[in-house]
Amino acid sequence: MSKRLPSLESLRILEACVRHASFTRAADELNVTPAAISLRVRNLESELGAKLFRRFGPRLEPTEAALLLAGRVAEALRLVQAAVAECRVTVPPLRLTVVPSFATRWLAPRLPRYHALPGTPSMRVDASSELRAQDDFDVAIRTGLGEWPGFEVTPLTPIEATPMLSPALAATLKLCSPADLAKLPLLQHPDWRRWFREATVDVGRLYFCASEFPTHELDAAAAIQGAGVALLSPLLFASCLAERKLVQPFAHVIRGPSWHCLLVKGGCTHPAAQGFRAWLQEELQQLDPESARV
After folding, report:
1. What's the pTM?
2. What digits encode the pLDDT tens for the residues 251-262?
3. Range of the domain at 132
């Protein structure tokens, strides 16, 4: 009989065998073969100088010595698990606040790819146009010119806009040139005249829809229903174009001067904030290498 302590792995195998009263079920739990379990038990019996199991046909019965030792091992394993849990650092959720259209149209469909990466924390997403109090978030995505004192600001991609309308509304008028858009009702947007000017179209009076919506998401919903022509981002509303819910009659897109920007508080201590920023930049770079700034 050896006086040295048996290995922890042998004791763990014993505990599983006693708990299951089966070498086969213990082997399944521990992801080893029944033969390996049987060998370990024989070696442990040799080390201890004690019989641990009796067989009665297919039935396996632990001896009193095995029951006593397995009970003490189970207690010890619970203590070890509790100690490890206390020692392990718990990563808090990453609190992210995002402008609504970017959150709904671009970020949300891609978050499963982010969470598939090893070591990423859970995330709490707040879709809001207003910047929250600094203590209420770790990372923010906002639109502007990059002037947010107290934050590390990373420009992601420029704000873009191009006319989009439903296929049904487009069919009511032959759109041969950008000037033809001025004959249709336009969903209100401050950059319509800029778009016509950059498209080298001299327009007089423009006809705007009576309703003004607070988000681009609602503009898109109204355009899909044929209410008018909306100025929308081809990046954010690419799925509407792909599904032919909307059409983009002309190639010209206005860009900037505002950008989608990522904001991290100066001195932010959340370990995932910088990793999330790097992932976001990489995703945008893959989509549009020319417009995404890294």
Report:
1. 0.63
2. 999 998 999 999
3. 91-294
